[in-house]
Protein 1
Amino acid sequence: MLRYIIRRVLWAIPILIGVSIVSFFIIQLPPGNYLTALMASMRATGESVDMSQLQTLSERYGLDEPMIVQYWKWISGIVLRGDFGQSFLYTRPVSDLLWERLGLTFILAFTSMIFVWLIAFPIGVYSAVRKYSIGDYVMTFVGFIGLATPNFLIALILMYVSFTVFGQSAGGLFSPQYLDAPWSWAKFADMMSKIWIPVVVIGTAGTAALIRIMRANMLDELPKTYVDAARARGLSGAHAVTKYPLRVALNPFVSRIGWELPELISGATITAIVLSLPTTGPLLLEALLAQDMYLAGSFIMMLSVLTVIGTLISDLLLAWLDPRIRQGVVG
Amino acid sequence: MRQIPMREPDTLLEVRDLATHFFTDEGVVRAVDGASFDIPRGKTLCIVGESGSGKSVMARAVMGLTRAPGRVVGGSVLWCPDQDGQATDLATLHGNSRAYRAIRGPEIGMIFQEPMAALSPVHTIGTQLAESVRSRHAVSKRETRERGIEALARVGIPEPAARYDQYGFELSGGMRQRAMIAMALAAEPKLLIADEPTTALDVTTQAGILDLILDLQSETGMTVMFITHDLGVVAEIADSVAVMYLGRVVEHADVDTAFHAPAHPYTEALLRALPSIHAKTGERLAAIPGMVPHPFARPAGCAFHPRCHRFRPGLCETREPENVPVAPGHGARCLLLKPARKAAAE
Ligand SMILES: Nc1ncnc2c1ncn2[C@@H]1O[C@H](COP(=O)(O)OP(=O)(O)O)[C@@H](O)[C@H]1O
Ligand SMILES: [Mg+2]
């Protein structure tokens, strides 16, 4: 087991290096660079260009130097000093913007994931065990509606309901008085009172998808002989089902965590814009539109890093759950 | 549970006209359709028949483990655990009822055909074995483990304590099947149903497993219902034989009669398909002309008539044969047979 973990963790290192190279390449793709764009915009607004300031920036990022040197300056800044560069758009260090947004995004994504699991798991199992029952059909129907409804529509409906029924404006994650306040229990409680709308919006499609997956996994396992063998040893039907096929059906479920994490973080952009959530999605979109390359590149890199970490977590969970993987029989 | 007096107090299990049908989208599959046999206490009954004759479906019906879309639609499964001659009709119990669960495991154990498929891929042997131990004895965790390891040792598994914590896929085929036998036997059942327990194994391993079952039977006095399509195995272990064809028992006799004076042409054909009665195990029944028809296309009259070497036109395809008692303890379903008493009177 330990060897497996070490091997998996070591494997993540070259992948992360590759990811950083690709991210850097992406931020270099637009013609010109951050400084020429900055100069152009300063000239356009009639500001005088401070050549010495440009010179320091140019040296700091090595903008006149070869790509490889630039990459090295960028990545060593990130790895050694946590310096992701400067946002052209906000004229603030990218790291300031990044961590705040990423933190809230993570909270939202994590809450959504728990929501999705809590709902999808029991319903999926129920739908499989009671295949073709009325309950199964109802869940399937509701699930497909959830899948087919665009998130922004659900978001608009919930905002409307929240406003007319609860008299609460549903935008954002915080009430105005807490927006810039430091973290406190009151701020946390305020966030929790607002977070359910984005959680429901983001989670609906995922819940519907996961119900189908859980149902299919269970249907694969339920007819297996080992379930009957357990019943032949005197276990009740319900006990045999929860002890055996549920455990096996969990594996494909867990392996999804890897790509669910980044999907939850980047996939909710439209929802985040509609609900004006202070998460990464809208900012990344903004950065890409404005060619704010260090901001965009850093976000892309962090999302990729999250993907790698998510995959690593699900691999380790899988190994913990499945002895065949742990011992290298499969996978 | 209603108690029914048995006709023969020495009988542990009496199956009468058992029928399991599968209600599929394509139609009703009459997988078992009026099967009757009985097993005396402490004896071994072999159920033989080609693949698809309904042996496994019948075994599951006895265990109360019939799978949807299948349902036991008729007949009785009289279970008489004590010598007092009072029986319970298992066919009237719901498969998931408390009463049935109290019987599965501690009263009737089952070994499935594929040992790999019958073991969970993500649970240890011990986890599964422990259920069996606890179905019989309410003992502590430590004692459960000790008894489980003991059960593994008894079926001849080397290093049983290490095997207890291993997974099914880490064991060889023979060891897996031994582990399955250990699981069934750890609950000390009165009846062991073994559904082709040696089919997936090589000849040497097969012989080892058969010896093991025979040893354990003489040790514990348990009754065995052994399903096989291998007549070599039958010759080795059976006290009596029930031959199944398309969901029915077409002949039921003690082992000597079945081998030396079979009454049903199907049994004759099975025996002729066997190169030699003394042949080693592992021979498949292949040489009967034609194939087992699908239960959808059950031939009219006697279902075996299209393949029968004694086929009599005008008779065999027109009437369904009843069970004819050709001698005490020997019956066969063939229209050409005459009952023992009538035959003597003529
Ligand atoms: N789930 C099922 N649905 C439909 N038919 C089935 C099902 N299970 C078994 N059968 C049918 O029952 C018949 C007997 O099967 P089985 O008892 O497995 O035969 P055997 O064990 O003698 O080889 C077969 O014709 C098979 O097609
Ligand atoms: Mg079978």
Protein 2
Amino acid sequence: MLSTTRRQLRAAPTAGRQLSTSATTRSSAAPALTLGTRPFRVGIIGGGPAGFYAASRLLGLAGSENTKVDLFELLPTPFGLARFGVAPDHPEVKNCEHKFEETARDPRFRFFGNVQVGGVAPSPSSPSSSTSTVVPNLSPSPLAAQITLSSLQPHYDAILLTYGASLDRLLGIPGEDTLSNVFSARSFVNWYNGHPYHSSLLAPLINLSKLEHVTVVGQGNVALDVARILLKDPAALEEFDVPEGVLDELRRSKVKRVEIVGRRGPLQLACTTKEVRELMNLPGVGFETDAALLKEAMVQMEENPGMDMARMRKRALGLLEKGSKTKMSSAERSWSFEFLKSPLELLAADATGASSSSNDALDLLAPPSRVGAVHYGINELVGSGDPSRLSARSTGQTTTSSTDMVLKSVGYRSIGLPGLPFDERRGIVRNQEGRVIDEAGQTLPGLYTSGWLARGPNGVIATTMFDAFATADLLAADLSSSSPSEARPELPIEQLRGDRQVVSWEDWEKLDREERRRGEEKGKLREKMTEVKEMLEILA
Amino acid sequence: MFSRSVARLIIARPSPASAVRALATSASSPSAGAPSRFLAPAAKHNQLIQRAFSNSAALAHGGKGRPKKGEGITLHFKKSNGEIETVEANEGDDIVDVSWEWDLDIEAACEKSIACSTCHVILEDDIYDKLEEPSDDENDMLDLAFGLTDTSRLGCQVKVTKEMDGTTITLPSATRNLRVDGSKPTPH
Ligand SMILES: Cc1cc2nc3c(=O)[nH]c(=O)nc-3n(C[C@H](O)[C@H](O)[C@H](O)COP(=O)(O)OP(=O)(O)OC[C@H]3O[C@@H](n4cnc5c(N)ncnc54)[C@H](O)[C@@H]3O)c2cc1C
Ligand code: FES
């Protein structure tokens, strides 16, 4: 029998007990959805998990024998954040790539890498990128072929937009844009994962041998990934696919302390138990947090068993209470969760206490000063009902903590394409269950969106997968119930690409083999190529 | 030294040989003068396409084989569309193996590494209670499973036992239910 504690842990609905059935008939497994063997052409824009899962779903549907899927990807390399987001020491998470590879080898599928769809211009109200942030998609790439959405449309019965969320949300506080050693956590992740747009730009700016104390703003999984990579013994990363240059930088690192700061409390944490557990188990790394706050949160937890994601929150709090395997007293390095703090200003190292954002003309000539401290406002939680949904309100009190580097991890937003309805507030393409809609709520026929671009930048690959499957089903249902039209003409890619090189799936496989070969020489999974130029030269 | 996780990764990789085999059985006639290297071979790929309709992971993994008819452990799978499929499984295989063998459409995105939760299954109470408690790692992933229940487990962590004979395993539906009658193609 289950113990009571175990029952309590499972504070989730008990649907399964009603769901179970003892029926024994074997019914036909044929899905209701079929593409009726009509010669549909579907274009997919963005080769991350959403794009690939949608392609695999479409090509797996009954009646898809004559369906063709073309996938366009900005980079010569496929897989989006599975390659450039997921942490290098989590290779198992990247196993989804095997399914994507199978889909790509299907003769009905074509990959067009190094193709930027858009002619992308940032919409006027979208936030600008800060000096130390590079946005892959904000301006036309000098190397990728440029194709506009409207030039694709005549060639496809449906176009599915899955180009993700490339912009970082900003803190919008003084010092954020002007001080050095302030990065978006995602740029930092892209750097250690060898993203071509970030590797060369960030490499000269990051000097871990000069800093001990890192502040991460935001408490989601990305913040925890970053902390783990900074605190882990670099030797334990060597076997994976961290670029050699990054490994060298990590070996030089003097980082002793990582503070992960959030504006709310322990019960409102956005990270998952798996990531917390990994940090707690890191050899030689201690953890500390505000014990009184934690205790308060535990009490609230007990009083509100029905709260959102109760099971995960309870298990996460349990981990925080138990603490790190290595105690603080014997730890060489450490991390902490700091709660109820909102950064108000980033302060320069050399002007203690003074704002660096003064308009002194000399500032323009001098190199940017380094961040030296964060000035925080202290919050309290307000609201009623589900305690996991309480919001933060300033108490009017402030505090300042010193730091050597600030990594911002407060969310992302997408970028619109000309002619595409865009929800500026949420930073996503306007859509209803994946069908693109205009401001008036009217469906734009033949246009769909899925993944982070459609739902916002939340959720693990599994979330993205379910969303992509559902959108693919919807797209297929719409197509198969549409009245028959003339077959679409094949895309004249040779004409559209101009003098730019387009990367085929076979080309990518060649790059993949080369990366693995280089990796093998060093006893690691792969040595990523971090420059598009090099990739294209190998393929030329 | 390669750690366990890397070793697991390498083992879990579908062998290129199996993919090549799949292509070889299908590619019969060469493409009719493909003008560009971006054109997929236009050959008839009926066999491959037929196989591609089923769970593509099964294409690479192929499962672990089926027991002789009448000698295996009978399992009923209640699929997300409500259909029941009854299969025979080997004792000791895990639920993902069974799915790969019988194309049951369990995704298993991380290929049994306890890193994805897409192999989430719901067991009957008595079967659930007879199993060992899930590990911390499994519970961490179950935290993220859609439609979690009191008797949820990760399919890749549950081995088939004799006691399971005749039990029903429910595959939770996580997608929005779009496969309703309205999605059937209109005749034309
Ligand atoms: C740092 C980080 C770590 C993560 N770690 C995990 C994890 O451990 N486990 C997990 O399950 N999930 C993890 N996730 C979440 C997971 O990565 C997402 O759920 C998933 O990648 C979203 O898929 P997507 O296809 O919508 O977007 P993306 O993966 O971002 O794919 C978008 C693709 O579109 C391309 N693109 C962009 N603009 C254009 C254009 N104009 N034309 C053509 N192509 C374009 C991009 O290059 C990219 O390849 C992580 C996310 C981040 C940010
Ligand atoms: S297959 Fe990924 S957790 Fe079981």
Protein 3
Amino acid sequence: MSDLILQLDTIIKNFGAIEALRGISFAVKRGEVVALLGDNGAGKSTLVKIISGGLQPTSGRVMFDGAERHFASPAEAKAAGIETVYQDLSLCTNVDVVANFFMGREIVKRIFGIPILQERAMQAVVETAMANAGTRIPSMRTNVEHLSGGQRQAIELNRFVHWGGKLVLLDEPFAALGVEQTRRGLEMIKRIAGQGIGVVIITHIMAQAFQVADRIVVIRQGQVAGNIERAKTSPDEVVRMITGEGFAQPVPAAGMAGT
Amino acid sequence: MMSSRRRDVIEFLLNNLVWLLLVAVLVVFSLTVPNYFQIGIFANIIEQSTYVGVIAIGLAICIIAGNMDLSVESVAALTAMVVGILFCSRGVGLGYSFSPEWLVVPISLAIALGVGAVIGALNGWLVVGLKMNAFIATLASYIWVRGLVVALSGGRSAQDLAPSLRVIGIQTVLNIPLTAWVAIACFAGFSFVMAKTPFGRHVTMIGGNPVATFRAGIKVDRLVVITFVLAGAIAGLAGWLLAIRSSGATANLGTGMLFNAFAAVVIGGVSLKGGIGRLPGVYAGVLLLSSIHTAINLMGLPAHYTQMILGGLVLAAVLLDTVKLSIRQRLA
Ligand SMILES: Nc1ncnc2c1ncn2[C@@H]1O[C@H](COP(=O)(O)OP(=O)(O)OP(=O)(O)O)[C@@H](O)[C@H]1O
Ligand SMILES: [Mg+2]
């Protein structure tokens, strides 16, 4: 078993004439936390969507868990063990917390072959998960439209923690969280990585990246502008990579630095 | 911040408003309209609610999934005409029969459901496959399917339906016609499916946020097509019941049902923006409309008043939808 969970090889993505990604290559090890940094519009969200099956690359290869994979849909990526928290949250505000937590993976009991939702069992699971994460939500039966932005984001985070998988992609997961919730979230990420799960986290906050990441990958205008172990760099250097100032050395071609 | 108990009570009232309205209307009519308060009248209200009720189920499911199916009325008319042509012995009827004779019941039902499902599948393909706007695609179906009915029948009617089928139209259980029980059973069955099974849950969530459900690995496209197929098949059932009631079919059978069904769905609490609504409420909406129809008939008002009142009711229902939404937002 290779110690790499994810390898990207010259991923290119064009939206018509727009070249959103221009040959992205890097790798994520099992149990490693990679912080993906870059300015607005650099291509981070696009890359996450390609890994999670929501978009197809124009060209390039995605190696996941030792084999080349072409995920045609989020369902396939999820089935393979990739959990994603998207920048624009993926909740259905017209249904309650429990329904959102179990979206697409409901607990059912078959009676005469008809699957029946097991509401109590599901509620118990959600209550435990929320309590473990220290998230306070008045009732698991309130529709999500009544919840605050932070509570919504907490549902998404707890959801992926609960379902686990082999690789977790987080696109600005803490944007709506308070100080305490963010601290818990960062701890949660370390705990998950400790279980051997690979983590890719996108953030604009340098402090967060340095707190949680083992390695930092910088994307600039659709290309890898830096791929370096956290211990071997500094926030100032990373900022220079992001903005492109004093961008001296060329980036290693295959992007396998640190592997 | 409101106590969650008080909020639950208000939520409950908002969700079941249409039932309160129904009771209020029945009480007011019973007190004010002469001859209204009779078992026979109530049985009649339930009977009248059969056909509109059945097509409203499919329409409601489509709207809850965030779409629209305007073709249901024409689909019901088409299946009624197909059943009429195959199994009527006079008019355009070809008078096919089987031995034993009762086989005509399951066979005609299967044909009706099949014809409805095929049109539904076509609607689903237009909306999901070709990404057409559901309103436009099904409006087109509404028109061409009705045209097909006229073409098939040459504008003539089919009469004298096979005896085994006609018997179904005459039987009553507890004073209520068997056909009305079919509608009630459909409401019970589909209410259960929508509230208690993953299918219903997923359809509701798709109506709320199709992107989120897609990302969660739910097969959104497939489910949306299924809602259209269901709406078509259920409309086919309504057509089958219509053919039985009228012992045949005419080319203009069932015209106006779409608007009634639509009104019932909206009054019943299904939000046109999708993701919100329950089928029992829709049935209450249908009963409410029938109650009002009956009162107007008893009072001897001309039929066009019914239309005006109906139009007013739909406006009131949409207004109510908005008011409910703002109350809910204040609850948050
Ligand atoms: N569906 C699309 N169609 C056309 N262009 C797109 C599409 N999605 C993204 N883009 C473009 O691709 C580029 C990269 O966008 P992306 O959302 O990946 O950036 P990002 O790094 O996530 O930015 P942010 O930090 O603001 O979230 C942008 O120029 C964006 O306009
Ligand atoms: Mg982004």
